[in-house]
Amino acid sequence: MSKYKYLLFDIDDTLINFEKSFHNCAAKVLELGGCEVTGRNVRRFKELNDIVWFSSGLEDIYEPYIKENYHRLYHKYVEDSLDKAINEFGLKGNYDDLMTCFNHSLGEEAHVNENAVKVLNILKDKYTLAVATNGLTIIQPYKLTKLPKVFDKIFISEEMNCMKPYPEYFKYITGYFNCQPEECLMIGDSLVNDIGGAGNSGIDSCYYNPGYLKKKAEIQPQYEIHDFVELLDIV
């Protein structure tokens, strides 16, 4: 019998494929803005988004300034990403409509990772399932719309006013469930946010690594899977 009672799932690049989801979202925004939807335009939209993301500093989550201003900067990243696309493609129409489409389509057009639905449906009656994600309340919930409604709680960093990988994030979760860290398993793709963050809080982790990426020596999960069905062999 598994020692775990609570399974915590990351969203982006764990439950859903972010790049494919973003491509679907970009197509919706381009269409709404009156721009031709081509593979080239969709890829360029993603390139612009990546430029804004890396210039935002949000990857440097251990920087004190980033920690203090994380969600304000996250909102700015979303706005700047759309602004770049509007300028690049000459998108027309109401700005608020474009922004709503951008935010909601990231979820409504989500590309669910293979076998995630199957595995969640098997686990739902055996464990307490929760989502543990960094991000904004205007975006993250929509990313779950194509997944089965099996989650007992959705933990979104903006609502919690703290984020992974910091211990206060994981303490918030164990406090909410009134459980011990040893009863939880964090499943995610980020070595820093999911695996390292959980480990520093006394929570075991399962590294979702479909691309067989090389791990950092200083961050070691208890488990590693390359396909969601492999999670069933662990829990």
UniProtKB/TrEMBL annotation:
Coiled-coil regions listed: none
Query: The organism sits in which domain of life?
Result: Bacteria
Q: What is this protein called?
A: (S)-2-haloacid dehalogenase
The organism's taxonomic lineage, starting at the top: Bacteria, Bacillati, Bacillota, Clostridia, Lachnospirales
